Backbone:
């Protein structure tokens, strides 16, 4: 969903929530869409939507507008986001296998949230409207059969992100220095990467190599992956700053 369709949709959902005093929500949004949507809502609507993807740490999330009588921290969002547990006892299946099989049923990508694979188990998240269709009709993924069951959101396991930590030092917390250390590319090649728009900072394209980076920031380098700044403190004897990043696998 591009901004030409996302922003009017957010504006419409916010107005519907306020006028009818009911919860409203988008489809699943990518992290970039969430960041863009949040900026738009703050600047143009004076509102901050509540983002939820079915479990703690979800990447794809629905943006909710909630009436004043609903507390986003304690509200039950299960009517809007469904969790499905799939078992494929005789297969070794991938994220692509599950997503491809779901979309082959005529489902748009934005109706499907995160898909987590753990050996022969899979958990994935759906908008409530299409969940029954998927549960009734998804009987095969890849070449093997699967069994599906809808599970309560509170029964979804805690998923720890798989990342490899690495620590390096930088003279300052500039974007080019952190990108070079995190992805092991030269500072000279970084200039070209920034100029081409290959680098994103907190899901927004970053073309300023001098941009500041802080703990908790997300950095993406096209064709290399994504990293989170876990810590940026302490100094070496030469006064350089220790930075620890987690590289997502």
Residues:
């Amino acid at each position: 969903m591009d901004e030409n369709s996302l922003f009017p949709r957010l504006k419409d959902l916010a107005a519907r929530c306020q006028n009818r005093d009911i919860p409203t929500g988008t489809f699943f949004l990518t992290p970039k869409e969430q960041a863009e949507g949040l900026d738009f809502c703050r600047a143009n609507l004076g509102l901050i939507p509540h983002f939820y993807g079915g479990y703690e740490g979800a990447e794809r999330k629905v943006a909710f507008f909630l009436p004043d009588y609903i507390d986003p921290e304690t509200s039950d969002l299960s009517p809007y986001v469904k969790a499905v547990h799939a078992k494929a006892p005789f297969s070794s299946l991938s994220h692509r296998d599950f997503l491809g099989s779901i979309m082959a049923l005529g489902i748009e990508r934005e109706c499907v949230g995160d898909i987590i694979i753990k050996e022969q188990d899979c958990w994935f998240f759906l908008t409530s409207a299409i969940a029954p269709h998927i549960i009734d009709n998804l009987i095969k993924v890849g070449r093997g059969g699967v069994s599906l069951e809808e599970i309560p959101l509170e029964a979804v396991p805690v998923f720890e992100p798989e990342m490899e930590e690495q620590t390096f030092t930088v003279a300052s917390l500039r974007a080019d220095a952190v990108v070079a250390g995190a992805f092991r590319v030269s500072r000279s090649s970084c200039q070209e990467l920034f100029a081409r728009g290959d680098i994103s900072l907190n899901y927004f394209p970053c073309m300023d190599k001098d941009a500041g980076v802080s703990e908790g920031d997300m950095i993406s380098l096209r064709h290399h992956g994504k990293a989170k700044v876990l810590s940026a403190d302490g100094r070496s004897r030469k006064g350089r700053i220790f930075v620890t990043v987690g590289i997502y696998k």
Observations:
- Residues 3-20 form the longest helix (18 residues).
- The mean pLDDT is 92.
- The longest strand covers residues 225-235.
- The radius of gyration is 21 Å.
